[in-house]
Specification:
- The complex is a heterodimer.
- Chain A contains 8 helices and 10 strands.
- Chain A is an alpha/beta fold.
- In chain A, strand 7, helix 6 and strand 8 form a beta-alpha-beta unit.
- In chain A, helix 4 packs across helix 5 and helix 7 crosses helix 8.
- Chain A is globular, with a radius of gyration of 19 Å.
- Chain A starts with 16 loop residues before the first strand and ends in a 6-residue tail after the last helix.
- Chain B is an all-alpha fold.
- In chain B, 76% of the residues lie in helices and 0% in strands.
- In chain B, helix 4 packs across helix 5, helix 7 runs antiparallel to helix 9 and helix 8 packs antiparallel against helix 9.
- The N terminus of chain B is likely disordered.
- Classes of the chains: A alpha/beta, B mainly alpha.
- Chains A and B meet through strand 6 and helix 3 of A and helix 8 and helix 9 of B.
Chain lengths: 278, 275
């Protein structure tokens, strides 16, 4: 856990636990059998921590993220957010989904200020927030604020999505394979921007991916989930120093760790009889 | 620096394109003109008895002879159509939204709604006459029933088809159920509703004609029945054309509304890939 050379400069052990999952169980009843998506998940995520979940397909990593978001109610177990039992979605936990969730009937500006408007924040402040968040996600093109999502590329829409989540100033940012649908170049740029946003804002981030490089590049802590039933298999600390820049991916150390991670996942998928969808 | 207007592909189409558009409008109107010409020739050569197909001049003359009774009849029919349409649409939309939101409403009305849906509204005309007698009330009721079915079905479908990701995103951005309705459900169903409103408006004209045929002492449909009794085919033609023009005007007005309200969807891009 001593990878922390973050700008905040607080040792991770001193930080409070933000998300606490205790014996979380998620069971789906299908017609002829019970499907255990998550089995006895126990996990503590500290404030400001960047946690990445990886694992073979069907390991329940997206399910786990949805439980934390409050969009799925676990069949058993307790979730504490900031010490309080929580089972519903709320503005304190923003989600960036894999699929396009930018509201197509609102323009860029209206999308980003959506949550702020619900909170009843004054117009001037909303304008400022929109400006700040657009800059944060690298959307600086003139006239972008009034554009409709259908006029934007997939990468730009994802940026709007991230800006909307950040603008709402949540404590926790939940990202469910957010860059899975994007091309390699856009993906790389957004990874860098994600790191920058996190460094700037110090949010707690839970990030689901099946891209091992993405996991290593972003994470303070990588949690590897196993399938059938979904459980926590292993935790890994990439321990690369911060701030991380894109050149890190080229280093021998990074590639070596990537190889090790791949081996772990291969063994895990082999055991579960499933292929890692990477 | 790329400006907004260049991204959107310019503000005004060049005059060449506009010329091409008017040229296309002319080409498109050729079939219609052709029909009018054939109509004229057929009646001039007296190939068909005027009882079955009156000449265009006879139809025009009918407007003059019907003239005095037309404004009142048109007003009666239109007010009936709009009243029925408004009441029916409101009921249809309200009921299906309530059914989408409340399990109680779904259980109370869902089955009735599903059973009533396939029933042809026109088949209920004798019942309406029997129960409510002859007059404006049963006619408005019939139009309202037809419209509420169309709007109800469309609204239910539209609510069901809202991508759940938008609703989930709204909840995680701090929306409650009320806010989700206002900010997600409404904007998503409006484009579908406008399409249904067009359909319902067109149907209300049809329902109005049928209702006035059954029993009425005023209105355009009633006037048409009178013409039929006197074997005045040109009069019938005149009223049919009047009905069509009125329906067309209403349809065009709603179409303008539609394109304004659905600008954010992809529906405005006509599918030209098939040509």
């Amino acid at each position: 856990m001593e990878a922390d050379k973050r700008t905040a400069g607080i040792a991770s052990s001193d930080r409070a636990v933000k998300i606490s999952l205790q014996h979380i169980q998620m069971v789906y009843e299908t017609r002829n059998r019970q499907m255990v998506a998550l089995h006895d998940i126990n996990l503590h995520i500290k404030e400001g921590e960047f946690v990445v979940f990886i694992g073979p397909s069907g390991c329940g990593k997206s399910t786990l993220l949805r439980v934390i978001a409050g969009l799925l109610k676990p069949t058993a177990g307790t979730m504490l957010i900031g010490g309080r039992p929580t089972a519903k979605p709320g503005a304190d936990r923003a989600v960036v989904f894999q699929d396009d969730s930018v509201f197509p009937w609102l323009n860029v500006e209206q999308n980003i200020e959506y949550g702020l408007k619900l909170k009843g924040i004054a117009r001037v402040e909303r304008e400022e927030a929109v400006d700040r968040c657009l800059r944060m996600v690298g959307l600086t093109r003139h006239g972008i604020r009034k554009m409709l999502p259908k006029e934007l590329s997939g990468g730009m829409r994802k940026r709007v999505d991230m800006a909307r989540a950040v603008a709402n100033n949540p404590d926790v940012l939940l990202m469910d394979e957010p860059f899975g649908m994007l091309d390699a170049m856009t993906k790389q740029k957004l990874q860098v921007e994600t790191v920058q946003i996190w460094e700037e804002t110090g949010k707690t981030v839970c990030f689901v991916t099946h891209d091992l490089e993405e996991a290593l590049f972003l994470a303070d802590r990588i949690i590897i989930l196993g399938a059938d039933p979904g459980h926590i298999h292993l935790e890994i600390d990439p321990s690369f120093s911060r701030p991380r820049r894109i050149g890190l991916k080229m280093t021998a150390e990074f590639q070596e760790k990537r190889g090790q991670l791949q081996d772990i996942l291969n063994a895990l998928s082999g055991k579960g009889g499933e292929e890692l969808d990477h | 620096m790329i400006t907004e207007s260049t991204i959107r592909g310019g503000t005004k189409p060049p005059s060449l394109i506009r010329k091409f558009k008017t040229y296309k409008a002319w080409v498109k109107s050729i079939p219609l003109l052709l029909i009018l010409v054939i109509w004229y020739i057929v009646t001039q050569l007296e190939l068909v008895r005027p009882l079955f197909l009156p000449s265009p001049e006879a139809v025009l003359r009918s407007y003059v002879s019907l003239g005095p009774s037309l404004p009142e009849a048109t007003w009666t029919s239109l007010s009936m159509i709009f009243t029925g349409f408004l009441i029916g649409s409101a009921i249809g939309i309200a009921l299906s939204i309530l059914m989408a939101y409340s399990k109680g409403f779904l259980y109370a009305f869902g089955t009735i709604f599903d059973l009533l849906r396939p029933v042809p509204v026109f088949a209920l005309i004798p019942m309406f006459v029997l129960w409510f007698g002859i007059g404006a009330a049963p006619q408005i009721g019939l139009i309202a029933l037809g419209c509420s079915m169309i709007m109800g079905v469309t609204t239910s479908e539209a609510v069901r088809n809202i991508p759940s990701i938008y609703i989930q995103a709204a909840y995680t951005l701090g929306a409650d159920r009320k806010a989700v309705f206002r900010t997600i459900v409404m904007p998503n169903i409006v484009p579908h509703l406008v399409g249904a409103i067009r359909l319902a408006a067109a149907s209300s004209f049809g329902l109005d004609v049928a209702a006035e045929f059954m029993g009425s002492q005023t209105g355009l449909g009633y006037l048409m029945i009178v013409q039929q009794q006197y074997l005045n085919t040109s009069g019938i033609f005149a009223i049919v054309i009047l009905y069509s023009v009125l329906a067309l005007i209403v349809d065009r007005l709603i179409a303008v509304l539609e394109s304004r309200l659905t600008a954010w969807t992809d529906r405005n891009h006509k599918n030209s890939a098939l040509h």
